[in-house]
Amino acid sequence: MIPIFKNTVKEHQDSFPDIITTILVAPNQHVESFISQAALDWPASLILVPGGSPQMKYNSFSASDVALCTSGTAAMELQLARLPCVVAYRAHLLTEWFIRYKAKVSYISLPNILLHSPVIPEALFHDCTPSILAMLLRRLILDESIRQKQMVGAEKVVELLRLPERRMYSSSAQLDSTCGHFTPSMIAASTILFSTRTKDDDCKI
């Protein structure tokens, strides 16, 4: 995705000539080497942030206006940090076919799945191009109503996370006091299962 993101930044040069970008670098030697190589001819000012440092990661969230991320728990983290974002995702044609026609999911990012609504703009598969991503980011930067929609969505996501989180901690306390730590992805997965079951129960009524 880095080449696509690099060209997306290049698309922004005319509209936002003073843009400063940050990349969270996963604590992996291969990833660090790949990102460092890509940074050599990055089209804008660039700050590399060690992704293994939670404090530095959330400091970079606080200092940013918008974010561009691949689908996964990153979108959930950005929502919880109240940082408006755009989700990008590319995959093999067979994977795209399976997701579109077999999995039958309307959205691919966790917040959108939880809310059953495209609160976060998604550029997926053949639509994941620098020009489309640049357009979505430009709208997010310039249109306060779109940013506000994500902030409202973030509050709803927090509310949805609370009940499954309490249930998970309650269950672990009954089983073993040492199992009381859950990652955001575990809580999100529990929430999706809970909301899906609730939706199915509503359909049966």
CATH class category name: Alpha Beta
> Could you say what the CATH architecture is?
3-Layer(aba) Sandwich
What is the CATH superfamily label? Glycogen Phosphorylase B
Order of helices and strands: HEHEHEHEHHEHHH
Radius of gyration over alpha carbons?
18 Å
CATH fold label: Rossmann fold
Which spans of ≥5 residues are poorly predicted at pLDDT below 50? 171-182
- Could you give the distance between the termini? 44 Å
Q: How large is the count of helical segments?
A: 9
- Estimate the helix proportion, in percent: 55-70%
Shape: globular
Structurally, the number of domains stands at 1
**Strand ordering within the main sheet:** 3-4-5
Strand content: 5-15%
Enzyme class: transferase
Protein name: lipid-A-disaccharide synthase
Keywords: Glycosyltransferase, Lipid A biosynthesis, Lipid biosynthesis, Lipid metabolism, Transferase
GO molecular function: lipid-A-disaccharide synthase activity; phospholipid binding
What does it look like?
With 205 residues, the protein is mainly alpha-helical. It has a single domain (1-161), classed as Rossmann fold, CATH 3.40.50. The protein has 9 helices and 5 strands; from the N terminus they run H-E-H-E-H-E-H-E-H-H-E-H-H-H. The protein has helices at 2-12, 29-39, 54-63, 73-80, 93-103, 110-115, 130-142, 144-175, 184-204; strands at residues 20-25, 45-50, 67-70, 85-89, 122-124. It has a 3-stranded parallel sheet with strand order 3-4-5, with helices on both faces. Strands 1-2 form a two-stranded parallel ribbon. Strand 3 (67-70), helix 4 (73-80) and strand 4 (85-89) form a beta-alpha-beta unit. The protein starts with a helix and ends with a helix. The model is unreliable at 171-182 (pLDDT under 50). InterPro entries: Glyco_trans_19. It comes from Cuscuta campestris. This is lipid-A-disaccharide synthase. GO terms for molecular function: lipid-A-disaccharide synthase activity; phospholipid binding.
